[in-house]
Amino acid sequence: MITQPAGSASVMPAGRIALIASNAIGDTLVLMVIVQNLLRNGVDVTVFGQPAYALRQWFPGVAIEPLPAQSEEEALLAQFDTVLQMHTHQPIPRLAQIHPRVCHLDAIDVENRPGCMAENFADFCRRELGLQDVRHSNGMMPPSGLMHRCHVRRVAIHPEASTQDKRWLPERFLRLAVRLRKRGYDVQFIIAPHERERWCELERWGIPAPTFANLHELASWLYESGWFIGNDSGMGHLASSLNVPTISLFRRRRVSERWRPAWGTVDVVLPWQWLPFGWLKEKLWRETLTCARVLSAFNRMVRRYGDGGHPMAS
């Protein structure tokens, strides 16, 4: 079910649709599943959001606009018959006050249904919206001029996440990088400007962390990389969307089943499960998720997918 404020729209959107995408990259990429299914079934939809607008070149045929300024929100959205937004609190917290037909999608991520969020959104399109031609693709396609995985030995590592509880131990990311480099891989870290202070050790180890002018530039670089390893984060969803073989580190199995990246070749790596209590697993997951465990997953992926070189020994 979708949550609907008083006076909001019926579940099936009518007329022109505005979808207010999330401020988060991962949520935005998953929300594009709904957008693609609406468009495929002939519904007129326009997307508003900052990450979506930064990646607009990767979604051909989709109308994507920047998030409007607060003073412009009401007039702009008045052009649409229905407005969809994933969360009640962001990006436009007062959405129900400025538009008469609003559907919030918050409740989908707490439904007790099998499958990840992309699959749940596709099922929502089929079950709640009554769409006939439904897929779980978000429709992301590369702009011309890029070569997929042309740097096949480049491993992109994203050691950060939106919250501290999703971040694996920094020293283990460094150890992983060193071991991969010894085996001939070009390891580079993806780190935002405000995160770099936490990663001063990279320079000492000579590990590159390139800077990117914008999200489009980062996506282009990642599209041409051979592999991706990272925490549960938007970068994992981006790598998956770009069909870059992805290893995604999660702290709990249940979280991974709901929020794992949904596209391309993805392996989820979890901590050892021998701890008896959920709270203890939550507290100690960083210690029980070993570097060897991640490397083993990488070995399996290389053997399955191929990298133009020799698979690593276990």
Major sheet: arrangement of strands:
3-2-1-4-5
- Quaternary status: single chain
Could you give me the name of the CATH homologous superfamily of the largest domain?
Glycogen Phosphorylase B
In CATH, the architecture of the largest domain is 3-Layer(aba) Sandwich
Structurally, the number of domains stands at: 2
In CATH's first tier, which class of the largest domain applies?
A: Alpha Beta
Q: What is the SS-derived class?
A: alpha/beta
Radius of gyration: 20 Å
Largest sheet: 5 strands, parallel
pLDDT < 50 runs, ≥5 residues: 1-10, 309-314
What is the end-to-end distance? 46 Å
- What would the CATH topology of the largest domain be? Rossmann fold
Residue fraction in strands = 5-15%
Order of helices and strands: EHEHEHEHEHEHEHHEHEHEHH
Number of helical elements: 12
Helical content stands at 25-40%
Q: Mean pLDDT, rounded to whole units?
A: 89
Number of strands: 10
Principal-axis shape equals globular
Concise overview:
The chain has 314 residues and is an alpha/beta fold.
Describe the protein's architecture and organization:
With 314 residues, the chain is α/β, with parallel strands linked by helices. It has 2 domains: 17-127, Rossmann fold; 151-305, Rossmann fold. It contains 12 helices and 10 strands. The protein has helices at residues 25-40, 50-54, 73-77, 95-98, 117-127, 170-182, 201-205, 215-223, 234-241, 253-259, 278-288, 291-305, and strands spanning 17-20, 45-48, 63-65, 82-85, 102-104, 151-158, 186-189, 225-231, 246-249, 266-269. α1 (25-40) packs parallel to α5 (117-127) and α6 (170-182) crosses α12.
